[in-house]
Amino acid sequence: MEYRALGSRKDIQVSPIALGCWPFSGGEFWGNQEDSDSVAAVHAALDSGINFFDTAENYPRSEEVLGQGLMGRRHEAVIATKVSARNLAPGDLVDACERSLRALQTDYIDLYQIHWPNWEVPLDETVGALDALQSEGKIRAYGVCNFADQDLREMIATGQCVTDQLPYSLVWRSIERTVLPLCRENGIGVICYSPLAQGVLTGRYATADDVPEGLARTRHYSGERSLAEHGEPGLEEELFAAVSQVRKVAEELGEPMAAVSLAWLRQQEGITSLLVGARNADEVRRNLPSLELTLGDDALHRLKTVTEPVKAAVGTNLDMWYAPARMR
Length: 328
Known about the structure:
The chain is an alpha/beta fold and 328 residues long. 38% of the residues lie in helices and 16% in strands. The chain has a domain at 4-199 and 262-293: Alpha-Beta Barrel (TIM Barrel), CATH 3.20.20. It has helices at 27-30, 35-48, 62-69, 90-104, 123-135, 149-158, 179-185, 236-253, 257-266, 281-286, 289-292, 297-306, 308-314, and strands at residues 4-6, 9-14, 17-20, 52-54, 78-83, 109-114, 139-145, 161-167, 189-193, 271-277. Strand 6, helix 5 (123-135) and strand 7 (139-145) form a beta-alpha-beta unit. The model has no long low-confidence stretch (mean pLDDT 96).
């Protein structure tokens, strides 16, 4: 297994694939989820060399279930969790961190992330609380999620931010315009969420109509879908035309479409780790082939080229779910 530094923190080494633990919550978007399956996914990840786990206080029960899965194996894991935007005032942030520590059954969090910006709370106050938690040993490092140019520049000037977690995949490449270069320039590692565009880049859906309502909430799809809240027309035609071309490249390489999609993303400069959700041990193992796959320059270029129309259609709004964006 190849391991990468967590941004500027060379002493924290993480696998290039992280287990995204939101599915452990089950519920409206994920459906029924047995805790035993989630725990098995954690063990399968550790057994395969995946040491990076991402959760959040806002994912119901996810921290608790991850804590169960890591019992007796905490020393093998790098835990990333997130504090919600509503809890960024200093006192609230400290309380939230204590709750997460209890839920995770640990006395320290490796990476504590601001889940979304809160423009009503001065960032320097939030950073002060994060610095204090770090000094106390309750967190080893901190980062942000969903911070675009303006907020990220302020964070760079204010704190010791080591990572920015953002949506990035072959069919969601908005961060390439300005945010990814900014991260590269400042040694901030990028953690990618939705690297398979919620299953589209696995090839399991032939058309937009095949995508379940719970997953068809992004700006890829019509704002008329039942759970969508962005109000935009969507870009299904561009999306599935690109997916068809990605599938063609994967077939020519003789590799699974998901593995090719993840390998392309893993090979982009400045990328630290890809969050891949798995609900059981088998789903963890299905993602392992991408770690052994290295794409040549021709394949990298072709995949970039065939997905350019989607990048253009998505535009500059980095927010996958809302318009106007909740990022600035």
